[in-house]
Amino acid sequence: MLPLILLMACGEDPTPTVAVRGAAPAVAPPEPSLRRLTSTQYRNAVADIFGEGIAITALLDPIDEVDGLVAVGASAATISPLGVERFESAAYQLAEQAMAEGEPRAVLVPCEPRGVVDRDCAVQALTPLALRMWRRPPSAAELEGLVSIAAVAAETLGDFYEGLAYAIAAMAQSPSFLFRTELGERGPDGIRRYTDYEMASRLSFFLWNTTPDDALLAAAAAGELTVPASLAAEVDRMLEDERTRQGVEAFFTDMLSLDELDSLNKDPLIFEYMSDDLGASAREETLAGIERLVFDLDGDYRDLLTGREVWIDRRLAAIYDVPAPSMDGFGWTTLPPDGLRQGLLGQVSTLALNAHATSTSVTLRGIYVREVLLCQGIPAPPSDVDTSIPEVSEDAPTMRERVAVHLEEPTCAACHQFTDPIGLGLENFDGIGRWRLEENGASIDPSGDLDGANFADVAELSEALTEHTAFASCLSQTLLRYGTGSALVEGVDDIADWHAAGFIEGDYRILPHLREIALSPAFSTAGDL
Fold first, then answer.
1. Where are the beta strands (DSSP E) in 380-523?
2. How many CB atoms lie within 10 A of CB 524?
3. What percent of the chain shows pLDDT beyond 70?
4. Is this model's pTM higher than 0.90 or not?
5. Beta partners for 179?
6. What is the longest distance spanned by two Cα atoms in the chain?
7. CB 24: neighbour CB atoms within 10 A?
8. Domain layout of the chain by residue ranges
């Protein structure tokens, strides 16, 4: 998986250590790369630049996860031939709506054209728009090219605004819009640092998941984002902005793969509580809980695994077997204190995503805990290994007996010993998260061991995770990968551990940790091209 996170060969001790907090270590960052905007970032940028009323119905090329994150995959993403057509369709949808009479045209075009072709008015409209769309000022040659496109189209179509629409469509299809160009420049000291405008882009997509606003671009123009004191002031301003909620939501959506809930597929004949809207409900529950913890409570990250306050609708209430807090929509309620359901490991989003369409999966759930919550890599099985699980029998009614073959067969046990015991701890939840005590008439035994910490049930497993050495450091590592768009390689290990130590010292609070990552030398310096 990741060199920093834990290059774990199965059978090795998977427990990392966190460095004692001291001075920030030197950084040797990886080579910078172009990062393509995700579909969400594209739509957020369009809304921020042109207004919420712009509707983009065209499908956009998806980006695959790399090392567990779409944010890292964006650094390797290109545009397929079909993707070119999709982005072209989106560009013309955007341009046509932007130049329709009324808003946003009245805002985007600050002048009254003196004729079908008015190059001066086109310059007044396109110069600030190019700055917002490309996240940097256009060069003289680029601006002249855009004005010429507008002039030729206006003359051909007989309308000034239709001419501007073609220039806007050209900007929207440009690599300068679709990709984040953050390559850095080498300074007199030999260190390659991101420029002010590149820092504006990095900060805005990291903290807000959208394009820089006017204030951030103004700070870049003034050279303030490469000066530590003014950079810190700008980061503080951004963290106080409501868009930080959007940014935190985007990070946890990527980290927890919550987008996959949009296509949640379960057999309704087996899981009677399955419905078409269950995935959307589960996603909202998880994100609302995270937002409440981070912003409303400024709480301890570990509470994500132990908290009992949930945001649920009637569908989730039925699965959790509690009264619905609202007959219409969502509401907050507290799960019973004597129950074992709590935190992320008790939510449908976690349990349903990490299960099969017709059954649970102790291996998938164990991999989720190892890779997502502890950042410990589990290698894929060899292609010639039989991964099937024996069928239910009189001697093997529960999953524990059926997966025992994985723990007894030497070729399987080397890896499955790190995943299956954790997954068995979640077996009281079926494939969509409904609580059960029995499977096929036999009692379920959810006890197990997590790296030396014994647990009797899922609640004790959650507690063991919060005390695990890797739990806090994993969030730091994932944030660094998310913010930089790269797998953390040798040379960045020490700074990641340093940030993890600061996170622990800061009582596991996420907003101060976001601030520290944004101000990290790992975030502002680039490796050699």
1. 438-439, 442-443, 448-450, 453-455
2. 23
3. 92
4. yes
5. 36
6. 87
7. 16
8. 36-179, 252-467
